[in-house]
């Protein structure tokens, strides 16, 4: 068993916008706590948390990394997460594993898009939140102004728990320390504001405070934890990870004030009931209970195999434990129980609630799985995280002949590691499309395929999945007759076609009377008709929203057979299609854009220029606006880059298919001309 109690554990995730200095801060915390002998740097590529070769090349985090250290009797478990929006899935997944989110803000850049998002997402998960202002020693930094902005954006609950002093060369505590000198504001005023804010959650303590005029730090501990749990207090800390200013004070805050697993809001598990019913289930951080652990990260290494990284919420996981994965009926044995320190794997005997751990080479483990040691916990799952939908896509194919199977295997692994990666197989365009959160995300995935798996692929923008339909009724007829000696072929078909409502699909109706087409050949006619639906006459796109009625025909007692009626049905259908004024349909998507309100005009004008229309706007908090609209999918090529340019990286968007609509005449002519060229080349 570990030589520390559950109450000694603190779990925190460093989150926030890119370039905030989270990895450097993690390195400083490890160094100041004595967990490492020297502080690494991004420039040298020797930090504990950015150990992947691609992270060293890019010089920023691409995946979440785990570390642990001790300070002041506390066992601190830390997750360093990427800050760029392209890798947001890794940061969101980390929120399910911790009690406290440390939202890191770059003092030079102030409040950025991911700052707002992480504050909101952490609040949705009922996490305790702290804001850490980093780079306080940088030039042209307005720290008083930044504090005012943070309080305006996130509420009066944001209060400094320490303040810079001596020109940001050190930081002075304001919670336990009632007086002192600071670069701005007043330590005494900050101390008073903290006490006033904390005692508000405890009526008895507040009454005693008003009567006596003071309370002891010991009396404040329980109400402080409650204030953190309820979001009634969001402590604000100041550090310079580069110089180390404020790092010892941040370590003290984590050790003395951050909640342990018994003090934070417990994660919300659900237990599946009958039908869609699910009952809330609270885990208890008791080492003596049945095991409940949640897999919040999966790593698939070409050499090590699959690594399932989990947080223990209840019970004790030991080496040789037998654990079930989700609803699985057969347990696996924990052969090697691992604790992670960056890229280093250390074997341990046991893990208790609050600990992070890992097991290797268990194929059944998947991201978001619940591990447990009793069938009493079957059908339990953690409240799902709402991950953004990956919109940026690339069609990929093997460069080398014979690599097709390897591509399928690698593409199966990438989504298993990152919840914001999606692989789509498009039957219409016959493409394999890899989707991610942005250009940087896709570039990383391709570099990973090339570096880790030695797999080279060709890429191109995905084709737009156009469709075709008809706009008026028409009739078709064909007599298929073939006589070359011996048994011949004969089949004659009369049919009508008519358009249906958008989304109605395909309908085939048999109105043949008197058996002029024998019943066994009706299916052959339908098969011939359906073969035309695969490639329409205008641009070779699938045909939809059409009704076909077969009403007459002829057969021959000897020469009629399946192949004859297939051919007759196909040719009659082609004749009818050409006469029914066929058109090309394009997918129209509903788009939601979140961006700074000042960019509303630019974004609506850009959408209009893409043949789109704005259907509504909504003002969000913190001067952000939500724009709803509809736009043809074909017009959104390169939109991610355009949005980034307009909003200076502060915008995001999501798409969902709305409907199909007719393309403009010039687009149809272009698509038709391209299809004719393809047919001639074939």
From TrEMBL:
GO terms for biological process: ribosome disassembly. SUPFAM superfamilies: EF-G C-terminal domain-like, P-loop containing nucleoside triphosphate hydrolases, Ribosomal protein S5 domain 2-like, Translation proteins. It comes from the Bacteria. InterPro entries: EF-G-like_DII, EFG_II, EFG_III/V, EFG_IV, EFG_V, EFG_V-like, P-loop_NTPase, Ribosomal_Su5_D2-typ_SF. PROSITE patterns: G_TR_2. Keywords: Elongation factor, GTP-binding, Nucleotide-binding, Protein biosynthesis. CDD domains: EF-G_bact (cd04170), EFG_mtEFG1_IV (cd01434), EFG_mtEFG_C (cd03713). Residues 7-262 form the Tr-type G domain. Pfam families: EF-G_D2, EFG_C, EFG_III, EFG_IV, GTP_EFTU. GO terms for molecular function: GTP binding; GTPase activity; guanosine tetraphosphate binding; translation elongation factor activity. Catalyzes the GTP-dependent ribosomal translocation step during translation elongation. During this step, the ribosome changes from the pre-translocational (PRE) to the post-translocational (POST) state as the newly formed A-site-bound peptidyl-tRNA and P-site-bound deacylated tRNA move to the P and E sites, respectively. Catalyzes the coordinated movement of the two tRNA molecules, the mRNA and conformational changes in the ribosome. This is Elongation factor G.
